UniProtKB/TrEMBL annotation:
SUPFAM superfamilies: eIF4e-like (SSF55418)
Protein name (Swiss-Prot/TrEMBL): DUF1917 domain-containing protein
Family: Belongs to the UPF0696 family.
UniProt xrefs under InterPro entries: Bles03 (IPR015034), TIF_eIF4e-like (IPR023398)
Superkingdom assignment: Archaea
Organism expressing this protein natively: Methanocorpusculum parvum
């Protein structure tokens, strides 16, 4: 990201939203750092690891690589204050995350952009707010174990005007909607995890084409 890019973003976003954006990018950055070390940010938090030292070290690298975003991230706080946010569940626990609309977990070794590819798709699991944390933990853990697809993400407690109701949604991505055996393998794994009710699968290409915005359009490509 160049200084010019930052100026464009700064013009488009209020200061608080820009700070949240910077925090989200820092979280992705620290997650990739942890993956390179064979670990995960949530594991460091849940195990009581030295998050302050980790944030201090990674913040230096982030500020060097994304210098234009450093001032926005400073609005969130120091490395110690950022660590305290993680310990409180921000960016880790869906019901306690209010600075980002989503928490995402990629399968280790998978390109972060793979879930957004046009040929990819996702199973959609809707859960009540009281159940989302436990549901996400199951899917997050199964994702990093390689049992599911290429990644997963969950909606958070941040108020979203696009949400249709109070339920939260978890996406479980597969790399190729046309690979029906793999799509159904993931569905079978989700049943093993306890998600036995019928759920739908959406193709990214239909989402990008706006196929689900018109009344009467079929929402799911697969429904099992």
């Amino acid at each position: 990201m160049t200084a010019d890019d930052f100026e464009v973003i700064e013009e488009e976003f209020p200061a608080d939203e820009l700070a949240d954006l910077a925090f989200g990018m820092f979280t992705i950055f620290i997650e990739k750092h942890q993956e390179s070390q064979g670990s995960f940010l949530f594991r460091e938090v849940e195990s009581g690891g030295d998050i302050e030292e980790l944030c201090t070290r990674v913040l230096t690298a982030f500020s060097a690589e994304y210098a234009p975003l450093a001032p926005a991230l400073e609005r969130i706080g120091t490395a110690q204050e950022i660590a305290a946010l993680y310990r409180s569940g921000e960016g880790i626990v869906p019901s306690k995350t209010r600075r980002s609309y989503w928490i995402q977990q990629d399968r280790p070794g998978v390109d972060p952009g793979a879930a957004g590819a046009e040929e990819a798709g996702k199973w959609l699991i809707f859960v009540e707010p009281d159940d989302v944390d436990a549901a996400w933990q199951k899917i997050r853990n199964a994702t990093i174990e390689g049992r599911l697809g290429i990644g997963a993400k969950v909606s958070t407690a941040k108020e979203n005007e696009d949400a249709h109701d109070d339920r939260k949604v978890i996406y479980v991505f597969t790399p190729d909607w046309a690979d029906e055996p793999d799509v159904m393998r993931v569905r079978a794994e989700l049943k093993e995890l306890g998600f036995a009710d019928r759920i739908g699968y959406k193709r990214n290409l239909d989402t990008y084409a706006g196929e689900y915005r018109e009344k009467g359009k079929r929402v799911a490509y697969y429904s099992v």
